[in-house]
Design brief:
This protein is mostly helical and 119 residues long. 61% of the residues lie in helices and 0% in strands. The protein is elongated and about 65 Å long. Keywords: Iron, Iron-sulfur, Membrane, Metal-binding, Transmembrane, Transmembrane helix.
Length: 119
C-alpha cells in the first residue's frame, strides 16, 4: 500500500517536471530552465543600477511573469551580450528581453511617446 502511494507520487512529480520542460520548449524559451540563478550576469550588467537585472529577466521568463519584470526595468536591456559572456552556461537573458520587446504592445506604445502605466 505504502509502496504504491510512494510510486504514484514519484510518477506524478516526474510527469509534472516533464510537462514544465515541454511547456518551456513549446514557448521556445528552453534556456530559462537551465538558469541556476548564480547571479554572474548581474555582476557584469552595465545597466543594473538603472533597474535592468538579467537574472530577474530569466526568473520572470521562468515563472511566466516576464511582463512585470520587463516593465520594472528590464526593458532597458541594450543587448550588449555581457551577460552571456559571464554566464557559466552561456545563457542569454538579453534574448528573452529582445523577444519581449518584439511582441509587447506596452513597449511599442511607450516608444511612441504615449504615457502608459506599468502594472
Amino acid at each position: 500500500m505504502f509502496l504504491a502511494l510512494y510510486t504514484s507520487c514519484v510518477i506524478i512529480c516526474i510527469g509534472l517536471l516533464i510537462c514544465l520542460i515541454l511547456f518551456q520548449i513549446i514557448k521556445k524559451t528552453p534556456q530559462v530552465i537551465l538558469c541556476t540563478e548564480c547571479r554572474q550576469c548581474m555582476a557584469v550588467c552595465p545597466l543594473l543600477s538603472r533597474g535592468c537585472n538579467p537574472m530577474e529577466i530569466m526568473l520572470g521568463a521562468k515563472i511566466n511573469m516576464l511582463d512585470k519584470t520587463m516593465k520594472n526595468g528590464g526593458y532597458l536591456c541594450v543587448n550588449c551580450k555581457k551577460c552571456r559572456q559571464a554566464c557559466p552556461r552561456g545563457l542569454a537573458p538579453f534574448e528573452e528581453a529582445q523577444m519581449w520587446k518584439l511582441r509587447s504592445s506596452w513597449y511599442k506604445q511607450s516608444i511612441k511617446g504615449k504615457k502608459i502605466k506599468a502594472a
